[in-house]
């Protein structure tokens, strides 16, 4: 793959992670959410929007840490990936979580754009995972849970 093709692929992956392309982006899914609805668990759903946001943050950080270093620590599924329900969440905690999601995406984008990193070769410390696979994993995982956020907002009557 020449550098032009690589750059095109990287740009498509970054766009998929950030913008969603064919679906609502994560940023759109949480925009203008009333603070009082962050921790409400809609009827017949297992999680609040806060729990979904935190799950996206935790899982994405785990993927980025793993992709960046052999020294990343493994999390225990499912306990380390989900937070317990809570009655409220502060603006500070909410904004910190959203900021970390964005910062971890930027860290991952740096891995993708670094031409010294092969997108296709397995990471030496993994079990066959490549940066391309991890990029698709982030995009797929975040899209799945972003859709759940939209559904929760619809059930809470707080969607467009």
TrEMBL record:
Query: Pfam families given for it?
Result: DinB_2 (PF12867)
Any idea where the DinB-like domain is?
Answer: 29-149
Q: Which domain of life is it from?
A: Bacteria
Task: Output the SUPFAM superfamilies linked to this UniProt entry.
Answer: DinB/YfiT-like putative metalloenzymes (SSF109854)
The residue range of the signal peptide is none
* InterPro entries the UniProt entry points to: DinB-like, DinB/YfiT-like
- What is the protein's given name? DinB superfamily protein
* Source species: Dyadobacter psychrophilus
Q: What is the lineage of its organism?
A: Bacteria, Pseudomonadati, Bacteroidota, Cytophagia, Cytophagales
